[in-house]
TrEMBL record:
It holds the Pfam family BPD_transp_1. Residues 1-26 are annotated as: Disordered. GO terms for cellular component: plasma membrane. This is ABC transporter permease. PROSITE patterns: ABC_TM1. It is a multi-pass membrane protein. Keywords: Cell membrane, Membrane, Transmembrane, Transmembrane helix, Transport. Belongs to the binding-protein-dependent transport system permease family. Gene3D superfamilies: MetI-like (1.10.3720.10). It comes from Streptomyces lunaelactis. The chain crosses the membrane at residues 38-60, 115-136, 148-168, 195-218, 304-325. It is found in: Cell membrane. Residues 111-325 form the ABC transmembrane type-1 domain. GO terms for biological process: transmembrane transport.
Length: 336
């Protein structure tokens, strides 16, 4: 009897084992992580501080202002020794409702033009960039010189490029119109009529953006093994078939990245529109980001709340687009 009891007691003790203690809370886990990786936190801290000061705070401030009726007449300011406090009011989502419902009569026309501008520019960037990359990937005399010349528009500062194009496209005395007049051809008003202003904006942005696309695609082309082309040629594939079944699949990862970056950059391409037409010129050629700037800094009184609401809407659209685009690419990759 005693042995059975001792055996049962011993068995019970062996089966029970030590009881797990309570799980540490988030503060304890953070403290443990900090103690183990304090040097990493020290390295990251300056970056976090800079991002917080230059990105997170302005973003939070912009979201807050978009929910008010703030403008240049009711925002607090300091004049000499006198401080005027803020007098704007909280209006909630009224600014978003007015913008998205078409109450300001500006958002949807500029949104439509921004979509057209982005699609046309990115398509031209990719198409011309791909053509030049295929040309420079071939063995031809003076290839290094051609590469240097074609990269120059990307190397030159954008403001210099745009001002040069303003001289070329000027309605009176512009180099292009003088050449067209000499050839007895019509001279379009590139910088004064809405249709030609949009054509001029697309032309300048294409000139600025093609070199980046060309260099990126050229790097992708050079990473494709030459054996694949040789095998396709032995199998009797035509140049188009080699391009379709070897080149395009080999550039899939590069193309997806550059198209996403090109779309985001073009959608927010402030510099070309602003420098080509000025802060208050060409209202029909303004894209969403330049129109938001015009609301906040190009009129009197300055509509800080409306400009901030435009900024939040633009950011939201780009986040949604990038999310759906990445999911679409992931599905295609899985299917392939």
């Amino acid at each position: 009897m005693t042995v059975a009891v001792e055996g049962g007691s011993d068995k019970t003790q062996r089966g029970a084992g030590p009881r797990p203690g309570p799980r540490p809370g988030p503060i304890s886990r953070f403290r443990q992580s900090y103690n183990r990786n304090w040097y990493a936190w020290a390295m990251v801290a300056p970056v976090v501080a800079v991002i917080g000061a230059l990105v997170l705070y302005p973003l939070a401030r912009g979201i807050y202002l978009s929910l008010t009726d703030a403008n240049s007449s009711n925002v607090g300011k300091t004049i000499g020794v006198n401080e005027i406090p803020d007098s704007f009011s909280w209006v909630g989502f009224d600014n978003y409702t007015e913008i998205l419902s078409g109450g300001d009569h500006q958002f949807w026309p500029h949104f439509t033009w921004t979509i057209v501008w982005t699609v046309v520019c990115v398509a031209l960037h990719y198409g011309i960039g791909m053509s030049l990359a295929l040309l420079l990937n071939r063995k031809l005399r003076g290839r290094t010189f051609y590469r240097m010349v074609l990269i120059l528009p990307w190397a030159v500062p954008t403001f210099v490029t745009v001002f040069a194009w303003r001289l070329i496209l000027a309605d009176d005395g512009g180099i292009l119109n003088m050449a067209l007049e000499w050839a007895h051809l019509p001279t379009p008003p590139w910088l004064s009529e809405p249709f030609w202003q949009r054509i001029a904006a697309i032309t300048v942005n294409t000139w600025v953006g093609v070199p980046f696309m060309m260099v990126s695609l050229l790097g992708g082309l050079q990473s494709i093994p030459s054996e694949q082309y040789e095998a396709a040629e032995v199998d009797g594939a035509t140049p188009w078939q080699r391009f379709r079944h070897v080149t395009l699949p080999g550039l899939r990862s590069v193309s997806s990245t550059v198209v996403l970056l090109g779309t985001i950059w073009t959608f927010n391409q402030f510099v070309v529109i602003f420098l080509l037409f000025g802060a208050t010129g060409a209202p029909e050629a303004q894209i969403l980001v330049t129109w938001a700037y015009r609301l906040g800094f190009g009129q009197d009184p300055r509509d800080y709340a409306g400009s901030a609401a435009y900024g939040v809407i633009i950011l939201s659209m780009l986040i949604v687009f990038a999310s759906f685009y990445r999911r679409w690419l992931a599905r295609n990759e899985k299917a392939v």
